[in-house]
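User: My collaborator sent over this chain with a note saying "see what the structure looks like." That's all I know about it. Can you take a look?
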Amino acid sequence: MTGPVAHFGGRDVKAEAAQQDDGPSGWDWFKAQFAPALAPDPFRPEDAVLVELARYAQTEQGRAGIGWLHSITDGAPYPAGFSSLEAAALAAAKHEGRAGVGLVLTRAVAEGQRLRDAHNKG
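Assistant: Without extra context I'll predict from the sequence alone. Here is the result:
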């Protein structure tokens, strides 16, 4: 079939690329898409609470209490044996919530210990 060729106008691709070159490109851009957003932690307790929690974790009663909390949160077994996908997904979501509490507790104790060590050095 012969006839006129449709012409949609030209584009200056180099000029468009130069205008859009205001951020990371290539692999750096791709990695940036998966980086977590930097935001303040609204649930972070005050430093005094963290230090006191770390101090409590060093006592015999504190180790026992925090150990028990870990066993019922992030140490709890993963749920299994469900008859439907929906029930399994709901149980997994509940388990993730419980485990999250235990991980926050672990992070708080570790950060409190870091703060105590920094205070003792300085």
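A starting point for your reply to your collaborator: Residues 6 and 12 are 18 Å apart (CA to CA).
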